[in-house]
Structures are given as structure tokens and as C-alpha cells.
Specification:
heterodimer, A: 351 residues, alpha/beta, 9-stranded mixed beta sheet, two-stranded parallel ribbon, B: mainly alpha
């Protein structure tokens, strides 16, 4: 008897599969969305998601869906066109480039509102209790670049300890854990530290081709002194805290702030990383964070305007607001007012 | 394991007493000894390999368990809330929107201040408020919205504390460091101690972890959203891959002629089973989302992608199961006049079913743990709502784990491990089902 039962079950399963494929048809038709969709940078992701959650708790709208696709990937999706199959906002850990702006315009996304939401610092951190150090960006470049000037010519990096790089630094083996090249934090670290650190050297200036010069500045050594620790910054925190002193880690400032009982930040160019030095721009390894909104979707997707208003509200982005608790470094007051009036007035981004 | 060791003792040499000859020379004995030694070494290395992998497994499981178990409990504070009409809405209001907009922060703060009347300064008040989770306000709001008659009443309620306090109570914060480097300061420690002494602060079972969805606050997260997303995804996968896989396997094994075409198909199916899963994600992005215009982040699309991924595995397993049915069964049925279709449907398929189901369940378990293909189709996203249908935006369990592992807040460490425990439980259950099916229905010939 079992046989016939199995037969029926098989038939049912087959029917269900047909039904499942049939379902694909109505789905394929584009429906109106009642939920905001956001893509983009993984650095801005924790802040945008926090706003999304608060927004859904109080505003009477459904919580926006936030994807973490990276700044570049987000721009590509965002600039894909106008219509509910394309995202409404995108997070970016750098300003939109002219190329992206033109790409957007070419696909019909002509009106964009830029929201600067605050700053993010990149910290160079050590295990708590280590000797405090003051790293100049030249020192960091000399310690981490693949090729450094040796006797007037570029040669593979010979430095083994920080003391060899700069006599005023402790005699620690150079061991730095940082993000892999796929990470936005790595891009910013290269841009803000490596590219700046190499500038003063005559051997670098001597490279005529600007592309080759950029590559020489940005290339990080691969002999084990720089350890690519994966995208998971928590892993770096754990390994720093349990490792020996002298090992350094590179990650977003929010991770340092969250783990001040285990780690300490190294000074960069004489400036300690904290909320004040990052927002004032004194701490050199900091960057502004942005969210871009598609104006054409306002009024089409419910809650767009309200969501943007929530993002720039005092309770979110001002000093003492809930985003600060998540590690965002807020802007100075005057700048925030300017951003707020631009966002609420839906001023178009121009390039 | 003991008999492995016993076997390593050199055996007696029974032939020795009977025919003393070439096998009894010193050189022969030496060679014999060397051979036994080689065998012992080989067994030892094998044993070491097993012990090493066992040790790795034990370390992994104990770390996850010890990190994760604390997440099943959550620190709560008992507060006596005065739900006054001035702070919420006039008595008799039923409009949900209006009730949700009440000033519940002030209600909670007032209840806290009644417990600690000495708190006056702005900074101290803020730290007092920071004891309670940021999600407590909307939790109270939802309660009042569900029962508007509460307005004007007083309510004694257990509310979750903020994650910092939770971490402190669970002793996951180093209290020996100076106050300014701690996320829980001395005043808060004092308050916690006094609340503990009066029985108003305790670790309670974390129901929200099993009923809620994602959140940015570690104390408010839940895995139910991920579980439902995984369920819908796997349901679609099963409905698509299982019948398709069986049909393909039956045709190839029982009906298809053996020629160059079927051989090519066979080789390709084997190759497809080895294709990295991210490739299926790209395929899904291009075909289902790009060409058919299906929504991003939907479990339906995720299920289709995972179905493509598990199809080759199911086909291969089903074919192996069909092949294991002895030809005598087929010949007997044919001899009694059954048609080839009847032979397959009445005899071969039922006998092969346990093997097919086992293969399917293992493919499903594999699909349950998959994240890479879902990354491409937008299921790696922050989604607060629990999906109601397979076309609502959703994530799945392993994606939830991945996203929590990436968050900076300390409280997510234990939540990540706890979510891994839940995922492992589901995987174990599925594998158990596969084993039971095999045990119950398997036939040997």
C-alpha cells in the first residue's frame, strides 16, 4: 500500500512545483513598493540601519530594507535608473564621483539629494597598557609600503621593527592587522595614510608617471608584516586584545570606542583619535560619510521624506543623538544646520 | 579505540616452531619487525588524525556554546510605570498612531527616578535612562496600543536593560580599568547593585531572541525573522528541486538511451555539483532579477537559486539510489507483464525512495547553511519585519549570523554564537531525519 501513497506524494510534489513556477508570473510584474530600499557602503550601514529601525518604531511606516553592498556597488545599483525596481537611497563612505554622477544622469537619475551624515575615523589601535606611540604618516608608510626608498632608490621594504623606521619609536616588530583590499576601510586607509605618507620622499616624487607613482604609494607589503585579517573587525579586536603588545590593528573608530577597556588608539601625526579630533578634522585619518537620495522616488515610495528628515534630526545625528552612541562622529553645529536645510529643502546635487 | 591499540602488538610467529628455515634467519626477523613497526606507525598516524579532528570539533563547539549560552538570558529591570494620560494620550483614545507617539521615554524615566530620587543632574539622568534598552519605549507603546484601557493606570513590568548593562551583569566587561574607559560607570554599577539587592533586576529567559527579528540593538535582536526566511527559502528549494531532480534521475537512469548525448549530460551534472555556489548567485541575479524582474531580497528568488544549486546533488544521489535497486526486481516485474513505467513507479522508485530522500535532506541541509549566492540577490540586508509570504524581503539564518558577527557592539558576540547554536540544532535535526529515514526504510539485498 505504501507504494501508492508514495505515488500520490510524488504527484503532489510535482503539482506544487508547477504552482511555484506559475507564481513567478505575477511576481515578475513590478508592484508598487511600500518599503524604502537602501543599498551601499558597509561603513554607513550601521548608522542607516539604526535610523531605519527608529524610523519604523515611531513614524508609522514600514522599516526600510538596508543592504550592505559597498560604496561602489551601491552607486551602480542606485544609478541603475528610476522606478521601484531600483533602490531609493545609497550609502557612501566617500563623496559621489563625477563619473558616477554622469552615469546616474545617463540612466535618468538626474535629481539627487546629498546628505552628509557625519564622520568616520580610522584608528590604529594597540593592546591596552602598551607604551603610547605617536606615529607620523611617513612612519606608517615606511613600515607598511611594499617598496621604500633605500639609499636613493626604491627597494623591497627592509624594515623589521618600528625603531628601524623611526628611532623615537619602540623596538617592536612591525606587525599590523588590517582590512583586505575589498574593504572600504582599506581604501580609505590607503587614501588617507599611505598616499599622504609617501608624498615627502624624493624617490617617489621622481616617478614621472602619475599612475606608477600612485601604485608605489598604495602598494602594501606582502611579507607578513601587514596581516590581512578579513572584513571582520571584531576578529582584529579579539586578536589584538589577546596578543602580545606591539601588534597594531587598523579598523573603524567605532570599534575602538566600543572596546576602550581592551585597546588604546595610537596618535597619528600627534593627534589622539577621539570624537572631537575626528569631527574637527584634526585627526588626519577621518572621512565624511554620505547618503544619497533619489528625488524622483519622493512621493512614489511612502516615507522617503520622513526618513530623510529623521536622519538629519537632532535626536539622530546631533552630538548626544542615538547615532553617536553607534560610533558616528557628528558634524560641527554650523555644518549640520547647513546639511539639514539642504536636505529638508531637497536641494539638488550639482557637479 | 582499544582494539586498534591491541592490534599494534606484534603477532606471535606461529610458523617458527615448525619449519626452521629461510623465514627464521636474523635478517628475516629484522624485516618482519620493520614491517610491524611500519604498520604501528601508520595506525598511530591515523589515530592522531582522528584525534586532531575530534579536538578541533570539540574546541569549536565548546567555544560557541560557552560564548553563546549567555545570550539565551537577558537582564531585565522591573519598573512601576505610571501611564499618565498627560504623557501618552487622553483616556479613551484608541488611535494606534496617536498612542504610539506618546512620550514613553518620560514615563520610563519617571519610574527610574522614583527608585533613585537622589539623581538630579542632566548627565546623571541620562546615565540612569541608559540603564533601560532603547527599545523599551516602543515595547511599552505597543502594549498600550494593544490595550488602550491601560492609559491612566499603573503597570508593573519587566523591561530589557541596555546591552552595556547586560554585558556588565553577565560579567563580560572588565571592571578593573579606569571609569572613563568603561561603558558602565561607577554610578551605574551602584544602581545595578541596589536594584539587584531589591530583586528588581535579574537575568530572565530571553524570549525576544526566539520571537523577534533583526535590530541594531543587541538586546533587542531575535532570530525568528531569519528562521522564517530560511523556512520559506528552503520550502521553495524543496518544491522546485525535489520533483525536478527525481524526474531527471529517473529518465537518465531508467529510460534514456546510453549514447554520447546522455554521457555528456551526465558529465555536466557531475561538474555542476562542483561549481562554487556564488556562481549560482550571479546566475540568479542575471536571470531571475535581471531578466524576469523578480524582487530583490525575496526568499522566493533565494529558493530558486538554491534549488539550482542543489539540483545536481539531488540528481546524483537519486541516480545512485535507483541504481542500487537490483535488476532482478525490474526483470521480475517485466516478466509478470508490467509496463516499463509501471516497473519504475510501482517497484523501483518506492524501493529507491529512502536513498533519494536521504540525498535530498543532505542537499537541503547544505542549502540551509548557504550565504554566498544569497549575497548577490540582496538577501544580505537589514530587515526588521518578519516576512509574511515568500515574496516579502527576508534574510536567512546564516546571513543573520554573518551580519551580527560584523557588528561593532560587544553584545553581538554572544548573540552570534547563540544564532550559530540554533543553526547547528536545525542542521542536526535534518541530518537526524536523514539517518532515521535510512534506518527505517533501507533494504539490503
Amino acid at each position: 500500500m505504501r507504494y501508492t501513497v508514495t505515488n500520490k506524494a510524488l504527484l503532489l510534489a510535482g503539482l506544487a512545483a508547477v504552482a511555484a513556477f506559475g507564481l513567478a508570473e505575477p511576481v515578475a510584474a513590478q508592484q508598487a513598493r511600500d518599503q524604502i530600499r537602501i543599498v551601499g557602503s558597509s561603513t554607513v550601514y550601521p548608522f542607516t540601519t539604526t535610523v531605519a529601525e527608529r524610523f519604523s518604531q515611531t513614524g508609522g511606516f514600514k522599516a526600510p530594507i538596508v543592504e550592505s553592498t559597498g560604496t561602489g556597488g551601491g552607486m551602480k545599483l542606485f544609478c541603475g535608473g528610476v522606478g521601484t525596481q531600483h533602490p531609493d537611497l545609497t550609502n557612501a563612505s566617500r563623496a559621489m564621483t563625477k563619473g558616477e554622477f554622469e552615469q546616474c544622469a545617463a540612466n535618468g537619475v538626474k535629481e539627487i539629494v546629498e546628505m552628509k551624515v557625519g564622520f568616520d575615523g580610522i584608528a590604529v589601535a594597540l593592546k591596552k597598557g602598551s607604551t603610547p606611540v605617536n606615529l607620523k604618516r611617513e612612519d606608517i608608510w615606511l613600515a607598511l609600503a611594499a617598496q621604500v626608498p633605500v639609499n636613493g632608490a626604491l627597494a623591497p621594504n627592509p624594515y623589521k621593527t618600528w625603531k628601524q623606521v623611526n628611532a623615537s619609536l619602540p623596538d617592536w616588530k612591525i606587525e599590523v592587522m588590517g582590512p583586505p583590499p575589498t574593504s572600504g576601510t582599506r581604501d580609505s586607509f590607503v587614501e588617507l595614510v599611505m598616499d599622504q605618507g609617501c608624498k615627502g620622499f624624493a624617490e617617489i616624487k621622481a616617478i614621472a608617471d602619475s599612475k606608477a607613482r600612485g601604485a608605489a604609494c598604495a602598494k602594501i607589503r606582502e611579507d607578513g608584516a601587514f596581516i590581512e585579517a578579513g572584513e571582520n573587525d571584531n576578529l582584529i579586536v579579539q586578536r589584538l586584545a589577546s596578543g602580545q603588545s606591539g601588534v597594531m590593528g587598523v579598523f573603524g573608530y567605532s570599534f575602538l570606542e566600543e572596546n576602550m577597556d581592551k585597546l588604546m588608539g595610537a596618535k597619528v601625526d600627534g593627534v589622539e583619535p577621539d570624537a572631537d579630533t575626528i569631527s574637527s578634522g584634526k585627526y588626519p585619518v577621518s572621512r565624511p560619510l554620505f547618503v544619497y537620495a533619489k528625488k524622483a522616488h519622493i512621493g512614489v515610495v511612502p516615507g522617503m521624506k520622513e526618513f530623510m528628515a529623521e536622519y538629519v534630526s537632532d535626536r539622530a545625528m546631533a552630538a548626544g543623538g542615538y547615532l553617536e552612541k553607534k560610533g558616528l562622529v557628528s558634524m560641527p553645529k554650523a555644518e549640520m544646520e547647513k546639511v539639514r536645510s539642504q536636505v529638508l529643502g531637497l536641494t539638488n546635487l550639482a557637479m | 579505540m582499544t582494539d586498534i591499540l591491541a592490534d599494534t602488538v606484534p603477532r606471535q610467529q606461529p610458523a617458527a616452531a615448525l619449519t626452521p628455515g629461510i623465514h627464521m634467519t636474523d635478517a628475516a626477523n629484522k624485516r618482519l619487525k620493520a614491517r610491524y613497526a611500519a604498520e604501528r606507525r601508520f595506525k598511530l598516524i591515523g589515530l592522531a588524525a582522528i584525534l586532531f579532528s575530534l579536538a578541533a570539533l570539540v574546541i569549536l563547539l565548546t567555544t560557541i556554546a560557552s560564548n553563546g549560552f549567555t545570550a539565551f538570558q537577558q537582564t531585565h529591570i522591573r519598573l512601576d510605570l505610571q501611564l499618565s494620560a498627560e504623557q501618552i494620550a487622553p483616556v479613551g483614545t484608541t488611535d494606534v498612531r496617536q498612542i504610539m507617539q506618546g512620550n514613553y521615554g518620560a514615563v520610563i524615566l519617571a519610574a527610574l527616578q522614583k527608585k533613585f530620587p537622589e539623581v538630579q543632574s542632566r548627565g546623571e539622568r541620562r546615565r540612569l535612562q541608559a540603564l533601560v534598552s532603547a527599545g523599551a519605549e516602543s515595547q511599552v507603546g505597543r502594549m498600550v496600543a494593544a490595550d488602550p484601557s491601560l492609559i491612566g493606570q499603573s503597570l508593573s513590568i519587566w523591561l530589557p536593560t541596555s546591552s552595556d548593562i547586560d554585558m556588565f551583569v553577565k560579567k563580560q566587561v572588565d571592571t578593573t580599568v579606569p571609569e572613563e574607559q568603561r561603558r558602565v560607570n561607577d554610578a551605574q554599577v551602584r544602581w545595578i547593585d541596589s536594584l539587584k539587592a531589591s530583586g528588581d533586576l535579574e537575568l530572565r529567559f530571553n524570549t525576544r531572541f526566539f520571537t523577534g527579528a533583526d535590530s541594531r540593538e543587541p538586546e533587542l535582536v531575535g532570530i525568528w525573522g531569519g528562521v522564517v526566511g530560511s523556512f520559506y527559502t528552503l520550502l521553495v528549494t524543496l518544491l522546485v528541486a525535489f520533483p525536478l531532480g527525481i524526474m531527471a534521475a529517473i529518465y537518465l537512469e531508467e529510460f534514456a538511451p546510453k549514447n554520447r548525448w546522455t554521457e555528456t549530460i551526465e558529465v555536466n551534472i557531475n561538474n555542476l555539483a562542483a561549481v562554487p555556489s556564488i556562481v549560482y548567485g550571479l546566475l540568479g541575479l542575471a536571470v531571475f532579477i535581471g531578466f524576469f524582474g523578480m524582487p530583490r531580497s525575496a526568499p522566493f528568488v533565494g529558493g530558486l537559486v538554491l534549488a539550482l544549486m542543489s539540483l545536481p546533488v539531488i540528481i546524483i544521489a537519486s541516480r545512485a539510489a535507483l541504481r542500487a535497486v537490483p535488476p532482478s526486481i525490474r526483470q521480475a516485474a517485466l516478466g509478470l507483464g508490467a509496463s516499463p513505467l509501471q516497473v519504475v513507479l510501482h517497484h523501483v522508485l518506492p524501493l529507491a525512495m529512502p536513498g533519494i530522500l536521504t540525498g535530498t535532506i543532505i542537499a537541503m541541509a547544505h542549502a540551509l547553511g548557504e550565504t554566498a549566492p544569497l549575497l548577490m540577490i540582496g538577501m544580505v540586508a537589514f530587515i526588521v519585519d518578519i516576512p509574511a509570504t515568500p515574496v516579502d524581503a527576508a534574510t536567512v539564518l546564516p546571513v543573520q549570523i554573518f551580519m551580527w558577527a560584523d557588528s561593532s557592539e560587544r553584545g553581538f558576540v554572544e548573540k552570534t554564537s547563540a544564532a550559530i547554536i540554533v543553526l547547528l540544532v536545525f542542521l542536526l535535526l535534518m541530518n537526524l531525519a536523514a539517518i532515521l529515514l535510512r534506518k527505517k526504510f533501507e533494504r539490503r539485498w
